[in-house]
Every structure is written in C-alpha cells, then in structure tokens.
Design brief:
The chain is mainly beta. It contains no helices and 11 strands.
C-alpha cells in the first residue's frame, strides 16, 4: 500500500505564502501523475495542480499564476508553492498519486487557512 505523507499547512494572512510537501513511500517516478486537490467545507474536492510524468503541469484557473507544483527528485518529494494566498484558498489540501492504470492514492490532508 502506497502512503503519501503531507506537511506544510497552517494559518497565513491574505497575500502570504505557504509551501506544501508530499513524500510518497515509493518513487515519484513510478506514478503517471502526482497532484494536489483541495476541499473547502460544503464543497466538492477539486483539482488544484497536476504534474504528469511527462509534459507541462496543469492548474485550476483559480490558482494560475499564484501556485506552482514541482518535484525534488533527490528528496522524492512533490511540492505545492502557494503565493498571494486569498481567503478562498482556505481548504484541506490533499496529495494524490495516480498509476498508469488509474489506481489512485491519497494523503491524509493538510489544513490551509488564509485569514487575517
């Protein structure tokens, strides 16, 4: 069973930055994609950013230009750098890893709260 360990959430003021980390128990290159999703209270879980094994990452329109997904191969970790945070970014953020056969794995979630 693959485990995804997330960290980096917290409380930040509007306009601030946070970096989320996701460390899988298996090589990040063994997955077809790795992604970040989020779920705010009363809302469905939504895709924030996805990094494919090959090709450019894609982002939700609401975070384009503010968030960036990246991989550190040496640390076997995927990051979500979040800048210019807004109150509407408040949510539980989940790391996701997907196999070629579409099998998915999820992290436990980390809370991000943007508030003054």
């Amino acid at each position: 069973q693959v485990q995804l360990v997330e960290s980096g959430g917290g409380l930040v003021q509007p306009g601030g930055s946070l970096r989320l980390s996701c460390a899988p128990s298996r090589s990040i290159f063994s997955f077809n994609s790795m992604a970040w999703y989020r779920q705010a209270p009363g809302n469905e879980r939504e895709l924030v950013a996805r990094a494919l094994r090959w090709g450019s990452p894609n982002y939700a329109d609401s975070v384009k230009g503010r968030f960036a997904i990246s991989r550190d191969n040496a640390k076997n970790t995927v990051y979500l750098q979040m800048n210019s945070l807004k109150s509407e970014d408040t949510a539980v953020y989940y790391c996701n890893a997907q196999e070629v056969d579409s099998t998915e794995y999820w992290g436990q979630g980390t809370q991000v709260t943007v508030s003054s």
